[in-house]
Amino acid sequence: MNIPCYHVNAVQCRGYCSSTARRYLRWDQHVTVSCPASKSGNYRPRLSSPLGAILRHNLIHSLSLRYLLIVPVLLAIATAVVLFQHSDTNIYMLYSQCHARSRVPWLSHVPLLGTPSCFLVSFFGEAAASLRSSAILSVIFSFLAGLLTVSTVEAARICNGPSILIAYPTGLWLIFDLIGGAFVWELIIIPAFFHRSRKIITSRRQDLPISDTLSTHPILGESMRHLARTSETLAIPVAVALGFVVPSALMLTHTSPITVLIWLLFPVWTTFFRQSVRKLTTLPLARWSESWQDSLHLESSTLALARVYLLPILCSVVSQILLLWSLYQPDDRKEMTRSTLKFITIDAFFVGLTVLYWILVEAGWKVAAVMVFTSTVLGPGAGICLGWVYREATLNLTGASESGVTVVVVGGDPRGREEGAEAGEDTPLLR
């Protein structure tokens, strides 16, 4: 079946193909749409069965934002209830000691911030005061390392640039670390990502006049999922390594008020090292300084992908081995250590559930299953990283999955709209 298409750009043709196939074709038919927007003129939608369409039907495409946020709100309520049920007098006694300035005198005597700062330092210090608790914390920290890497990667993508909450995560990570815990992910970060995804999907479904749109447009550009700069593939792993992994290792191996205080400020260190590396790559003396400023689709480069995600995966595997080893050692946790560690473990558990729901909504149950399986085998840090790579391979923000139609454009150069180049025979324009 051949259908002429009179739209002048590929995105409009994409919508035309989807609607045409939805109206006129059975699920087992194929259609070729003749379109002047590409040199070859062939658009070949691949149609699937209704069952296959349902299996690939992600919630982010069909549910409005208000319905998507029901689960995070319920998770926040559950977090508050569980934390309240597992609270005990040890936590209150710890705060009372700081308020009486009997713990960490050099910190507790600081006006205004002395008591809460002393409490946070003492809280995490007590949580890491034994071998078993340090092994458990290493697993939690490896998960946070993977989550921090994923969060920073998403902050560096072109499509998330207009969202302040996503593109500048330092403040939210500080609130998460110092005050909010899982509530920050459940009530702020995840809703921000859902809101951004819904906005992109809604905009790309509309027949907008985008023939002159740059490829780096944050919503309609073909490079919207690219990192804004290639230098991010160096800046992100260095920032995570020096800003989070090193302070975490210092805190677990040499627990003291100083090392705990340094660890508590890891969002600041991470941002500082990331910005510093990005600045260094712009210096004229830096080799390949120009190429570092080009955009890059991270998942298309195996070397860049390994550079970004290798460290949190290795940390996750090592922490998993350490935890299994510690289970065969005598449990040396004291009562205060058990109380504080229980709070941290519950909080991390609900963060994990929230991230799992995030992946389930945007990428489907298969990606969520991959994350759960790899987290069980290699640790939660590896699970979030490997699951995120798989998520990117299956992510669809065009809404085409709603009808079970995937439009493949043959011909066209992604630079065509930006530089006026003609479409080529071998390069796919849209997928």
From TrEMBL:
TM region positions: 65-86, 106-124, 136-153, 173-194, 234-266, 308-328, 340-361, 367-390
Top-level taxon of origin: Eukaryota
Keyword list, A-Z: Membrane, Transmembrane, Transmembrane helix
The keyword Transmembrane belongs to this UniProt entry's keyword annotation: yes
Protein name, per record: Uncharacterized protein
Lineage: Eukaryota, Fungi, Dikarya, Ascomycota, Pezizomycotina
